[in-house]
Structure formats: C-alpha cells, structure tokens
Amino acid sequence: MIRIKGVNFTYPGASLPSLIDLELDILPTEWVGLLGPNAAGKSTLVKLLGGIFLPSSGLVSIDGADTADESQRRHLRRQVGLVFPSTCDQMLFPTVEEEVAFCLGNLDPAPFGVGDWEWTPERMAGRVQEVLLLVGLQDKAGWSVRSLTPGERQKVALASALAPGPRYLALDEPTIYLDEKEHHEFISTVSRLRQELSVGVVWATQEPAQALEADRALLFTGGRLVLDAPPGTLVEDTGRLAALGLELPEMLELEARLPKVCLTEACLQMFAPSIDAS
After folding, report:
1. pLDDT of residue 91
2. Were both Cys, which of 8, 42, 59, 139 would link to 204 (CB 3.0–4.6 Å)?
3. Closest by alpha carbon to 132, among 107, 152, 147, 150?
C-alpha cells in the first residue's frame, strides 16, 4: 500500500507550497485519478511517489518502505514505474530495445525478490521482449525511437516503467500530446495491463473524463486535496469542476443535467403490453 502522512512539499525558492498537509492511502491494484488544474499538486505527487522528490515534511511510504530512507532508494525505484507527459523527458537511447534495457541495467541487481538473479545479457534481452510484447511493440525492438509515432513512444516509456516489475504505475498526464486514437489506445493498454499484472495505477490529469476511468477520483487545487470520492461524483458536481476551469465532455455534462429516470415496477407494467406485442 502507498501511504502518505502529513506531507508538505515546497520547491526550492518557491514562496508557496505545492502540497499541503496531504493524507492519503492507495491500495495495491487500485486505479486512482489525480485531477486538478495547473499547479494543483498532481505532478508533484507523482514525483514524490517515484522518489524524484522527497517531502519537505511528512512521510511517503511504498509498501512500508520510506522514500526518504537512503538504504531503500534503489529498491523503491523498481516498486513505482513512472511515465511523464513527453517522451523527450525520458528517452536517452536511439533504439527501442536499448531504451527499455537501460531501465534494467540501472537498477538493483536482485529484482522480483530473487536474491541471486543477475541481469545477464540474455536475461535482459528476454525481459525487454516480454515488456515490449505487453505493450504491443514486440516487432519494433530494433527501431529508432525517433521513427515511432507519439503514441508508440509513450508505449516505450510504459514498457520501460514496467521492465523492473513494479507494483505501481504513476503516470503524469501521459496522453496530453497524443491524438484521440492513440490517446484511447494508451488508456486501454494501461487498463488491460492493470488487470493482467495486478498493478496499482496513479494517473494525473486535467481531463475529468480520464478520471472517470479510475476507482477513485482525487481532486486537487492549490496543493490541497479537496475531494476523494467515486468518479461518478464528478459528473454530479460539474459546478465544482467549472470553478476550477475543468470541463467534462459535452455528452457527459448533458447526461449530468438530465433528470434521473426511475423505472419502477408500475412503469414497467405500463410498457409490458407493447413489449409483449413486439
């Protein structure tokens, strides 16, 4: 379980904190949507989960391991896989397989809890193929990263995050630069992998519709968590979203405005004759 207790975070030189008094638990295999406008604290939280930043005060722990514990740092790197908005922030090597392999070579030599495991070239190559198959890029292992579409590059980033076998994925607006087709395909891939691999998902977004994919929606503004509720609550409270400059797609907003229809037994009996006749 991810546990966040009394966390505050302020960037060096900043006058205002990016996260304030955050208290939060995230269960294994849970999908949590982090929703909010710019500067709400979503991206900061993702980086705290990945150990890129440490809290100014408070505790961030991943399955009982404190991210501030230096002795746990290498272990924690393979517990949380990170994906960022732009692959330009992540890609370091020319080919797909080299990029994914780098994430393995840069980690603890005892992954998956197997103490005597070593990343021999053969084992590394096998693992690279496994994760490329998971994201549907098994035929592009030797391709140049630059020759891929934006959606394929994000899948390379996802494969790199998956390579060490993490318990959680933390994704910071991963589809913001994708077209509609690749956007939906990426979300579908993550949803499938969550089920297949039993991983937890923390997905930061400014799009309320994406938060509807989650088990829980967490709404942030000004560094504070102001709502922790089932995603359907967002559809019922469009006024709160609008106040933060967040909008649901038109069809979802229309659905929220329509009166609820209750099909009682009496109603069903009224329509029964016409149903039988058809």
Report:
1. 77
2. 42
3. 152
* Rounded Cα gap, residues 78 and 83, in angstroms: 13
User: Which two structure tokens, joined as six digits, stand for 240?
Assistant: 């709160």
Residue 122: both structure tokens together? 């053969």
Assess if residue 33 is contained within a domain: yes
Separation CA 271–CA 155 (nearest Å): 50
Parent domain of 177: 28-41+81-277
What pairs with residue 65 in β-bridges? 62
Instruction: Tell me the CATH number at 139.
Output: 3.40.50.300
The candidate with the shortest Cα–Cα distance to 40, out of 271, 218, 191, 215, is 218
Beta bridge partners of 22: 7
Dihedral sign from CA coordinates of 232, 236, 239, 240: negative
Q: Flag residues of the chain having pLDDT under 70.
A: 88-90, 106-118, 247-278
Q: What is the pTM of this model?
A: 0.84
